[in-house]
Amino acid sequence: MLPLTSTPGNLETTIIAHLRQNALTESSLLIERLQGGETHTFLKGWLLFLQGKVGEAAKEFSSLSAFTPLHPCILIQQEIRTDLVEKRFLELLDAVEIHESHTPILSELRALSLLQLGFLKDAEKVARCALRRCPNHLALQNALATILGERGAFSEALSILEKLCDDYPDRWQPLNNLACTLNDIGLMDKAIDPTAVLLCCHRRSLSFVSITQLLF
Fold it and tell me: Is the pTM of this model over 0.85?
């Protein structure tokens, strides 16, 4: 357990530590001490999600439509550790109300959750369908390449990733994915170069909103 002080930042950090440990009773008591705002809404939604109250959690996350460009469900997915919670997350995606601008993001999250659960064909279908609506969406293309790599379709995956790296030389996600894919097919020497570039990109990565800084 992290020590508590009177400063809001430390209180929020303590709540996150409790949520990560699935200490839900302690988390609930501490969340009541927060004074509202986006962080309070996010942490309350996270708690409700962990309690299995998907509908109530969706309402909290739906109210964070101004939480752009980082949708709160992105942060929730990054904390998932079991298939049971992954399945619950898919329920959350069905229940949450989203702004049109978030549609590609949630399609990406759905595809990656299906991938994590082993539903590779369904994951690919979701990604390709979303890309027909948003053909130039970086995260969706990167997700599709990940899925294709898992399915063994390395040629198409590499083609997508190499183009993304050319089009977005300052973005670390496709570079990371390219390095991993090259390594997976035994091309370790070729994987070294994108990995080196990846380290440079991390040093120049953009700042995220305050809740992200608390989480990572």
Answer: no
